[in-house]
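Weekly modeling sync, notes
Attendees: S.R. (lead), two postdocs, one rotation student

Agenda item 3: backlog of single-chain predictions. S.R. asked that every request posted to the team notebook include the full sequence so nobody has to chase files. The rotation student volunteered to paste the first one in as an example of the format we agreed on. Action items at the bottom.

Example entry:
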Amino acid sequence: MEIEGSGNMVLVDPTSNDEILIFYVLGSSGFFKKYEYRVEAGAIKATNCLKANQIDQLKNTDFVCGVFTAVNPKEHSYGYIMIIGTNDGCLMAFNNTSSEASAGLMGNGKKQLIFENGQIGSIKLNSNWVIIATHLGYIQRYKFTNNIFPTGNYQNDKISSISLDGAITAMEFDPSSFNEGIVGTSQGFIYYVNLTENQSLKIVSRINPTIDSPLLCQFDLNNP
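Predicted structure, as returned to the notebook:
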């Protein structure tokens, strides 16, 4: 199968099962499609995730990254939520419910500006925290309670921020606390970061003089 458009990321829907594989392709220039592959029939169906009025509205938006959460704020408990990062420093939310009236980009496609001068290139989350990172080296963590996005109230949202030397190309955090983590940058460095204390420590200098950007940081949970 050939997928049209420029895809930046593929996300598998948490509701996929042995009979049907559901996945989303997020891409440049407002490309955002849902694909349903029925295994037994070998048939695939593609659906544009943008409503008619959103296609022109988001034609200059690049969907850079996204992640699903199974932990939904009470007012949005009808489906899983996908949090999406864009090229102009915004977050968006998508609801994957089977209800046609409720499915789609939440807030009618409204974008929540987080970083005025930064592409959001990576998102991590658990049941308590959301961590976002930009191509300018900023990492921000906020509390995931009844708000999908931070409200701008740093005290209530318990926002932590840290800045490193280049674009964040890879990051991984302790899954239990989401406080301590390992982060790679476009300058070829790897940092230990502590978001509660807003501190960073460079632990590895350029990994390879010809390959500057680490693309994956991962904990080995079997070797603590």
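Discussion: group reviewed the output briefly. The two ends are 41 Å apart (CA to CA).
Action items: rotation student to repeat for the remaining queue; S.R. to check formatting next week.
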